[in-house]
């Protein structure tokens, strides 16, 4: 049958291989369905073909910060389709709220890293999670630990 819309490689790729370099047209504090979050208050306006990378709850690529202020898409498994988990690049995802990826492990709703951080941290190697999200995660974890210490001292 016909291929779905999305990004595909012209050959099978090896695990760990950079599949696609994300390049930006610029940056904006305003988030849209066509930007990728690159910091807590900054979004990259990406060029094709990265603009058309699909979401999947069973992604074949992870993302790594690159020298152009965006992301490289890195193969997690061998294959040709290049979807990533939107939950792993947006703190709060707005682009596609209802998931229709068709994966057997489909989560039905795309929420973003804030609500899926434990799952995303267990699915991806640390170098395939954007640095701004790993910093946010460490900061939130520290706040929780500090809150536990404060509540223990109050008893």
Distance between the termini: 64 Å
Helix share bin? 10-25%
Pattern of helices and strands: EEEEEEEEHH
> What is the subunit organization of this protein?
single chain
Number of strands: 8
Helix/strand class = alpha+beta
What does the main sheet amount to?
Answer: 3 strands, antiparallel
Q: How would you write the strand order of the largest sheet?
A: 2-7-6
Summed over residues and divided by their number, the pLDDT gives a mean of 87
Global Rg: 17 Å
Strand percentage: 15-25%
Distinct helical segment count: 2
* Poorly predicted tracts of residues: none
Shape: globular
Structure description:
- It contains two helices and eight strands; from the N terminus they run ββββββββαα.
- It is α+β, with helices and mostly antiparallel strands.
- The strands form three sheets. A three-stranded antiparallel sheet has the order 2-7-6, with no helix packed on it. It has a three-stranded antiparallel sheet with strand order 3-5-4. It has a two-stranded antiparallel sheet with strand order 1-8.
- β4 and β5 (42-46) form a beta hairpin.
- The longest helix is centred in the last third of the chain and has 24 residues, at 131-154.
- The termini are far apart.
């Amino acid at each position: 049958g016909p291929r779905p819309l999305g990004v595909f490689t012209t050959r099978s790729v090896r695990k760990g291989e950079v599949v696609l370099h994300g390049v930006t047209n610029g940056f904006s504090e305003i988030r849209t369905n066509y930007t990728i979050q690159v910091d807590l208050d900054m979004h990259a306006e990406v060029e094709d073909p990265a603009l058309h990378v699909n979401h999947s709850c069973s992604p074949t690529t992870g993302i790594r910060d690159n020298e152009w202020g965006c992301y490289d898409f890195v193969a997690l498994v061998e294959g040709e389709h290049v979807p990533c988990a939107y939950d792993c690049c947006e703190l709060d995802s707005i682009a596609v709220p209802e998931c229709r990826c068709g994966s057997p492990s489909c989560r039905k709703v795309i929420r973003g890293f804030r609500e899926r951080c434990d799952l995303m941290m267990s699915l991806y190697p640390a170098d395939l999670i954007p640095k701004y999200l790993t910093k946010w995660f460490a900061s939130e974890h520290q706040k929780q630990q500090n809150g536990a210490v404060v509540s223990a001292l109050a008893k």
